[in-house]
């Protein structure tokens, strides 16, 4: 009887957490649900990439990954705080000068056409629904407080994983953000967290939206989604084309390598700047996270002129050394003749300028 009561209490507690704990998000309903059901990319109750994208996530594989993570490595995390530029609002005064500021992992501030955008602004301490239990951000926190950021014209999200969509960050940001652009199904999370529906634009792959002189295209990516129990593949994931007329930027989101990169390049390239994921990879899940050499090829496929490698420099979510992603990207870029900027966290990169940051700051 005691064991039965304990089990019942655990089941009830888990049910209440899933239903009542806000960071887990919400499921789409009403018109949003109908948009999902009507998507050509949605079949048999889940979103799908056009080509088979299996992941080796068997119990044996996951136990092996956990064993490697627990074993640790002296180079899996930096030994000291990373060099970072303190955020200076004066950097944004010249709104006619397009620029990008990387905040580690895939979080970026982009200024184009006089607008200030945030891409996947995960500013929390850990990519987890329970931050006290998750792997911590290198250095503990970013070199600024969210309150110091200027008014944001739009937040653009690639998908709903915790290392890209952070409950705490959205709660702090939402009052200073005018619009949110998200893939199908992600809007329900934002609404649960207090964002009004009229400020949210959801999009399917290849959908285009106009926003005050910008053309935003929700483009394909090869990944997956989900942030709660039994919601895997229930929301869409994507990359984004951000076209200001005179300046074009491509944001990869999370993606394995695939033919969609060439398709995007043919339809919307070339790009003045690409923001391409290169970290948290492993051969066992290479179809959902590119290997660094594929990152360079994807940059070339879309017709990129300059690339900033992202999805590294903040969290340890795989078993490679923390500097491996950027080092491998640079080696492949040198062989391929690709131009790569390597800004410090918080350092601005002026889009289209003849000079850009190339210092190997991570080696210091």
UniProtKB/TrEMBL annotation:
InterPro entries: Metallo-B-lactamas (IPR001279), RibonucZ/Hydroxyglut_hydro (IPR036866). It catalyses: 3',5'-cyclic CMP + H2O = CMP + H(+); 3',5'-cyclic UMP + H2O = UMP + H(+). Pfam families: Lactamase_B_2. Residues 117-312 form the Metallo-beta-lactamase domain. One of its GO terms (cellular component) is cytoplasm. Counteracts the endogenous Pycsar antiviral defense system. Phosphodiesterase that enables metal-dependent hydrolysis of host cyclic nucleotide Pycsar defense signals such as cCMP and cUMP. This is Metallo-beta-lactamase domain-containing protein. It comes from Cohnella faecalis.
